[in-house]
Design brief:
Length: 215
Amino acid sequence: MRALAFAALLAGLSGPALVAQPPVAPPAPPRVAEGPTRPDAARLAAAGRLVDLLMPPGSMRAFMDGIMPNDETMLASVAERLGIDTTDMTHEQRVRAVEEQGLRADPQFRERFRIMMEVTRRVAGEVMTELEPEMRAVMTTLMARQFSVGDLGELESFFRTPAGRRYAQLSLTMMRDPAWQEFFALMTPRLAQMQQRLTTEMNAATAHLDPAPHS
């Protein structure tokens, strides 16, 4: 589930847009099934105790802090947007190249970029805090559906151990590790390349069809 959340957020947070983007409609709130498919009270209670261990207050903000790109990743993202190949550059060379090209197009590039980073982090944290109760409710239902009361009790026992508590804590922040940040830096240009490849291959695969009608 956290992997799905990360995948959904990555597209929007791999780097701040340097131009205004059109607003995206928010997804519909999740629907919790009622009736026979809804877990019974015993399962929900057991799942709720487990979620309390997995998601203590502030967990969603910590999760967001963990997946937000660091300065090096953001630098790679902006360089990609500006069309700068930084493959063989040192960090200092990347900074200089990005700033030089950015300042040519925008004399206030440094200040604008700093503000964008600051606002992005603040707003993302606030939104995650607002979403936390809904996420906890969804996690409780999911856990109750997937595991029996006995299973949930065993999981709760593990997450009450020192190793379990440490795992629960680190699972929300491990994406801060430099290994993940290096992966994000590699992934940014790969995603752009994937989009280009999708367009090329989709056009080739549908070339035999009549043009799609326009509404």
